[in-house]
Design a protein that fits this description.
Elements lengths: L2 H27 L6 H13 L2 E5 L6 H11 L4 E5 L6 H5 E7 L6 E7 L6 E5 L6 H4 L3 H6 L1 E4 L2 E4 L5 E6 L12 H4 L2 E6 L5 H11 L13 H12 L5 H12 L10 H6 E3 L3 H17 L7 H12 L4 E2 L1 H5 L4 H9 L2 H4 L3
Parallel strand pairs: 1-8, 1-9, 2-5, 5-8
Antiparallel strand pairs: 3-4, 6-7, 10-11
Helix pairs in contact: 2-12, 9-12, 10-12, 12-13, 13-15
């Protein structure tokens, strides 16, 4: 196949992906009223092969949103309710002793846990101790689980979509920075508008039953991820993405005075990677064959806000990581290198 034929084939696949994304939005919209930005954020993470953390108060359909996306994608789905007494083996699986009734011999057999699914919903992930939270670290980064010295491969594709309640902090265990860094995006789920809330109440208090039509299966999702990876970006866009991530680090020469004053720790190299991957995914969802600087700007807040740790001076000045990132995104130093 020539390069021209390959490019034409990719354009055809891009058109099909745009149609699939549009159909997926319609399917999700049958159950979820509003929250278009959050749904697009989830789709961006899925197409880029990343994980997403959804933060919002109770009752905003975070769990239903994830379950609906998984159903519309025809992917296997498991939900884990994180509680203080949850153990690592309850997530990854455990070995049990099994006896052969014919020979009487006993042997260990591994029973896979709920992490063995295409989409894993970690509901209220901050309600379980760090020992159990850490059970997801290997799974999220390497897509494998190790039990009793044996490594098992997780289904492909594999996504962790986690939820957190930002207002109730008693009995919670904040996620360590190493685990937060494994989430590609942090998505904030806001209250619905008045019209949306009226539509939600009308839809959920009647007898209407919604049946979703599957849009993509696991193989189609893998092909879509491969297509996203092949979306080209310029060297300038890579330079801009790397510079934006480096500007969040107070010890870096590229950090502006705002960061040096208010930031304790900045974003690591995963942020640079996810800025580019997120830009590619957004371009693919819009049917554009090449990502641009606006795509990076669109995903910057979701990629960076959980990776930037502010200090006491920021707290005293009532400045959050979102405030810092909002100023960085409007700083022309990083966009001028693109």
């Amino acid at each position: 196949m020539t390069s021209v034929q390959a490019a034409a084939t990719d354009l055809e696949r891009l058109e099909r992906l745009v149609g699939a994304v549009s159909s997926l939005r319609r399917q999700v919209g049958q159950r979820i009223v509003g929250q278009d930005a959050v749904v697009d954020g989830i789709l961006t993470a899925l197409l880029a092969g990343g994980h997403a953390l959804l933060i919002g108060v109770p009752g905003l359909a975070k769990t239903l949103m994830v379950q609906t996306v998984a159903e519309a994608l025809q992917l296997s789905f498991n939900r884990v309710q994180f509680t203080p007494d949850l153990m690592p083996g309850d997530i990854t699986g455990t070995e049990i002793i099994e006896e052969d009734l014919t020979t009487g011999k006993r042997a260990f057999r591994f029973v896979p846990g709920p992490v063995f699914a295409n989409v894993v919903l970690a509901d209220e992930i901050n309600r379980t101790p760090p020992k159990t939270q850490a059970a997801l670290l290997q799974a999220m980064q390497e897509h494998t689980v190790t039990a009793a010295g044996t490594t098992y491969t997780l289904p492909d594709p594999f996504f962790v979509l986690a939820t957190q309640n930002p207002i109730e902090q008693e009995g919670t265990y904040p996620l360590p920075e190493a685990q937060l860094d494994r989430f590609m995006l942090e998505l904030r789920v806001a209250y619905p508008s008045r019209d949306e809330e009226e539509a939600i109440v009308e839809q959920t208090t009647g007898r209407r039953t919604v049946h979703l039509a599957p849009v993509l299966d696991a193989q189609a999702m893998l092909e879509a991820q491969d297509l996203v990876r092949r979306i080209p970006v310029s060297k300038g866009l890579i330079r801009a993405s790397v510079l934006l991530a480096r500007m969040t680090r107070p010890t870096d020469a590229d950090a502006p005075p705002l960061v040096k004053e208010y930031v304790e720790w900045g974003a690591g190299p995963r942020a640079s990677q996810y800025l580019v991957l997120g830009a590619k995914a957004r371009a693919a969802m819009a049917g554009r064959p090449m990502a641009d600087l606006e795509d990076v700007r669109a995903v910057a807040l979701a990629v960076l806000r959980h990776r930037v740790v502010t200090n006491f001076a920021a707290e005293a000045a009532n400045r959050s990581s979102e405030d810092v990132i909002a100023e960085l995104v409007t700083n022309r130093r990083w966009s001028d290198v693109a």
